[in-house]
Design brief:
37% helix; seven-stranded mixed sheet; 170 residues; alpha/beta; single chain
């Protein structure tokens, strides 16, 4: 059986909502990346912009297992200014060699998802197995359940029901 883990970073809570929803429907373990310094209010907004513009790798905290203990890792991150959120960037730079396979779920309010996927692939050194771009308003409006469920289904073993045939052959 494939071991899958969900690793997420969320500043505003939107990514956390998507991560918790996926964990609930899949029973996969969930682990959070946290900023060492909270990004609250205007000063937090400014730090997000500066970290993104200069490509800074801020100090983070992660208490989960090594990523090499999973066959597949689901990485959930917001997109900041058409770039990967700085705490996720810092996490990936530190843990990229542990990743066997990964799926990228990006939460964005506008544009930049494809550019951010390229950034992730460059940092990790390989393309994601699957990708899912979620609009922030869909996550907040709880309209992303079908997309998360369909993603989860890609990891389920495929066994035809008893008594049925594959491709119509008996």
């Amino acid at each position: 059986m494939t071991q899958v883990g969900i690793i997420y970073y969320s500043r505003s809570g939107t990514g956390r909502m998507a991560a918790e929803r996926l964990a609930e429907m899949s029973n996969w373990p969930l682990y959070e990346i946290r900023d060492d310094n909270a990004r609250i209010g205007l000063s937090g907004d400014i730090r997000c912009v500066i970290d993104t513009l200069i490509g800074r790798h801020p100090p983070i905290h992660y208490e989960g297992p090594g990523l090499d203990s999973f066959d597949d890792v689901i990485l959930i991150s917001p997109v900041w200014l058409r770039s990967l959120a700085a705490p996720m960037r810092a996490f990936l730079r530190h843990h990229r060699r542990e990743i066997k396979n990964y799926t990228a779920i990006l939460v964005l309010s506008g544009y930049g998802g494809l550019q951010t996927l390229d950034e992730m692939a460059t940092i990790i050194g390989m393309k994601p197995r699957f990708t899912l771009l979620l609009k922030q308003y869909d996550v907040l409006g709880e309209a992303c359940g079908d997309a998360l469920y369909n993603l989860k289904e890609h990891f389920e073993p495929r066994h035809p029901p008893e008594g049925s045939s594959v491709c119509g052959l008996r």
